[in-house]
Amino acid sequence: MPRKVSNKPAGGLTLGIDFGTSNSAAALIDPNGQLQVVPLDGQRAEMPTALFFASETHTVCFGTEAMQAYLSGTEGRLLRSLKSLLGSPLMDEYTAVNHQSMLFFDIVVLFFKELKRRCEAHVGQPIERAMLGRPVHFVDDNPERDALAQATLGRAATQAGFSQIAFALEPIAAALDYEQRVTAETTALVVDIGGGTSDFTVIRLNPQRSQQSDRSRDILATTGVHIGGTDFDRLLDLSTVMPLLGYKHLGTGGRPVPNSVFFDLSSWHLIHQAYTRKSMHFARELWTDFVDQSLHARLLDVLENQHGHRILASVEAAKIACSVSNANTQVALDFWDQRLAPTLTTSAMAQTLAQTVGQVVNCAQRCVQSAGVESVDAVYLTGGSSALRPLTDALHAAMPSATLVQGNRFGGVAAGLAWAGQVANYA
Description:
Blueprint: E1 14-18, E2 23-29, E3 35-37, E4 47-48, E5 50-54, E6 59-62, H1 63-71, E7 76-80, E8 94-97, E9 100-103, H2 104-123, E10 129-134, H3 143-159, E11 164-169, H4 170-179, E12 186-193, E13 198-205, E14 219-225, H5 229-240, H6 260-265, H7 277-285, H8 293-304, H9 308-325, E15 329-330, E16 343-344, H10 346-371, E17 378-382, H11 389-398, E18 403-406, H12 412-423
Parallel strand pairs: 1-10, 10-11, 12-17, 17-18
Antiparallel strand pairs: 1-2, 2-3, 2-4, 5-6, 5-7, 8-9, 12-13, 13-14, 15-16
Helix pairs in contact: 2-3, 4-12, 5-9, 5-10, 10-11
């Protein structure tokens, strides 16, 4: 059972917000001291971090409704993986939606406003205070851009209507959620694999210390790397579907076809760039590089009909199905061409992701080494991509003596942020 807390901060509820690259979640501690993970998307706690601007009706859809509107062929613009833009110059650039120009920053604010509205509708009262999660590194090896990313996130939440804001590292928040379920002192490696980042914390957990505001003595090490679920999607799209469009095709002169368009089509936050007038002109002119003109025709068909998001969503679905069933899975492309049905095999998925998964596991091992402990009692897995089969297999092989605990993939960080929000100091 969730543990009650007695030291509730004054001034109303605190909302723990896990603004994710692929999915977002929110949670709070109610006046009775009980955890509530807010159902943001119908009955689901997780809400795809997605907006769809419908051209004909000039309306905006969010979450699952946004994805469904786009995948059903409704005319408009889908925006996803906005978190990936934090800390980059793109955040201050304009983009075209519903026949008007809008800053990417203002689109993030729009998403936060909708998230806040849904949470307030659920609890029936205004919520002014937010505990925001952040990865260990928004941007690797660039402290200035990393600080800018956090500041931008805080500014977006403020403009959405939150008057008091604090931040907590996402893996530490996940650890605080796990702590609600341990009964004795436990040294845990928290593995938080999100859409855009993989974050790790080695922490001593003890229910007797769960209500302390300062847990710095218990946090033994934190590390993180800018690799997550969207990177796995990109690699699998490039290896499984993009060759059907000409990726790695040896064209005229024995040289591979230029690959920039394929990388854009395989990256959630860059797909829209492939549809710009300049990019379309570049893609059409590529015909001279292709020996097999049928591949070039497919590429243009995907671009002209804007199938990029649909293809990547099918690759993501196949990745999940392959991980869950541990069996070969077809990538559904019938919305585009019923003759094309590439198979994602378990061995191909493991081979394609081996190097990237290795980077993630190496980062986890560095966290344990930095903590100064020989081993950990438990590896606590959370985040939307934490169930990826090649990753869990690699973690088990790297830390065979630890118990692997699968946490709440989508709600664990938000729950931990809610617990942290109860004892945080707000300006």
